[in-house]
Amino acid sequence: LVCFYGACGNLDMAYKVFLSIQSKDVVSWNSMIAASVQRGCPDTALELFQAMDAENVKPNEVTLVCALSACAQLGAIDLGRWIHIYINKRGFKLDCYLSTALLYMYAKCGDLERALEVFHSVKRKDVFAWSAMIAGLAMHGHGKAAIDTFYRMQEAGVKPNAVTFINLLSACSHMGLVEEARLFFRQMLPVHGIEPQAQHYSCMVDVLGRAGYFDEVMDLIKMSMPHTAFVWSSLLGACWIHGNVDLAEVAFSRLIELEPRNDGAYVMLSNVYAKSGKWDKVSELRKLMRVSGLKKEQGYSSIEVHGTIHEFVVADNSHPMSTKIYSKLEEIALELKAEGYVPDKNQLLLIVEDEHMKEQALYLHSEKLAIVFGLLSLATSQPIRIMKNLRICGDCHSFAKAISKLYKREILVRDRYRFHRFKDGCCSCMDYW
Ligand SMILES: [Zn+2]
Ligand SMILES: [Zn+2]
C-alpha cells in the first residue's frame, strides 16, 4: 500500500499507511524512502533513513541504491554524500551494484572526479559499471575519455550491451565526434552482435544532424523502421541548429503524427522559425498551440543549498529570499552591461514588442534566479550546481559564462541533455550543445 500511494504521488496517504504498520520491516521502510525521494522530498527521505537506523532496522542494498538513484535524479549531492559516508561507516561491501549507483549519483550531481574515484575502486567491473561511467563522462562532455573507457572495457573482456552503445554514441554526439560515431554505429551488429534500435538511430541522427549531414540523416531515417518520436525530435533539434526550415517542417509533422500532444515539438519548430526571423510563422504556431490547448512545459531550475533543494520557475516570487535575489540580479545586470554583455533577445519565444521588456523577460529565467540564489547562499569556494529540466537557453548560457568570470565562481548546470561547467568565462561544452 505504501508503494501504491507513493507511486500515485499521494505521499500523505503513503505516510499514513506507513505509520499504521506495527512492525515495519526493511521492505516497508524502503517503499516509504523511495516514495519520498521520488516525490522530491529528500529531506523526508534522509529523516526516514536516520529513523530507520535509530529503530535498528538495517537498510539493505536496495534501500541504498534506491536512495542514491533518487539523489541522482534530484541532483541532491549532499544527501548522496551522506549516504556514501553511511555506507562506509556501516561496513557495507561496495560491490559492483552499489558502486555503480554511487558513481552514477556523483556523475549526475556534477562531481565527475568523485565518480571516477568510485569507478576505479571497483575490483571487477561489470557491464553496468562500465556503461554508467561512459554515460557519466558523456554527460560532462568528455567524449574522448568516454571512448577510451569503452576500449578499456573491451580489453577487460566485458561485452558491451545496447545501453553501452547508447551512452557511447551520445558521448560522440555531445562533442561532435562524427567519424567515431559512424565507426561505432557500423560495428554494432557485425562486431558486437547488437542490433541498432530506435535510440541508437536517434543518437546518430543527432550526431550527423548537428554536423549538418542532412542527406546522410535522411538515409539513416529511411533505414530505421518503424520511425519513433525520438528520431524526429532529434532531427528537429538539428534543423534548429542549422536553421533548416524545410526539413524542420517535415520532422515536425511526422512527430505530431506520432505524438499529437508533444508541446516540445511546437516549441522547437517555433524556435526554428524565430531563428530565421519568420515571426509570422511563430505567431501562427503560437495560435495553433493555444487553440489545441497545448501549453509549453514549465521550465524550472533547482539548486541544493545545505541539504535543501530550492526550486525556481520563471519570474518566481515565491522564494523567501526573492527580494534579495531580484536586487542582486539588478546589480549584476548593471555590472554585466558595463562589461559589454548584451542580452540575446533572439532567445525569447514570446513576441514582446517593447525592447526593454524583452531584456526584463530574459532576466527572469529560472536558471538565472537559481544562480543568483547560489551566489548569495553558498561559500565562494563551493561550486554552484543547478539542475534544469529543459535545455538551457543561449542567453542563460552566456549569462553563466559571464558570472563565472566576473565573480570567479564555478557554475555547473545540468540541463535535459548534459552538463555545462562554467569557469573563467568559458563552458566545458565549448558552446557546442
Ligand atoms: Zn534562459
Ligand atoms: Zn555549455
From TrEMBL:
| Family annotation (Gene3D superfamilies) | Tetratricopeptide repeat domain
Give the source species.
Opuntia streptacantha
Repeat (PPR) positions are 25-59, 126-160, 161-196, 262-296
What's a Gene Ontology MF term here?
zinc ion binding
Q: How is this protein named in the record?
A: DYW domain-containing protein
Sorted alphabetically, the keyword list is:
Repeat
Q: Name one GO biological process term.
A: RNA modification
The UniProt record lists the keyword Repeat: yes
| Keyword Repeat appears in the UniProt entry | yes
Top-level taxon: Eukaryota
* Positions of the DYW domain: 340-433
The organism's taxonomy opens as:
Eukaryota, Viridiplantae, Streptophyta, Embryophyta, Tracheophyta
Q: Which protein family is it in?
A: Belongs to the PPR family. PCMP-H subfamily.
Per its UniProt record, what InterPro entries does this chain match? DYW_dom, E2_motif, E_motif, PPR_At4g14850-like_plant, PPR_rpt, TPR-like_helical_dom_sf
Query: Which parts pass through the membrane?
Result: none
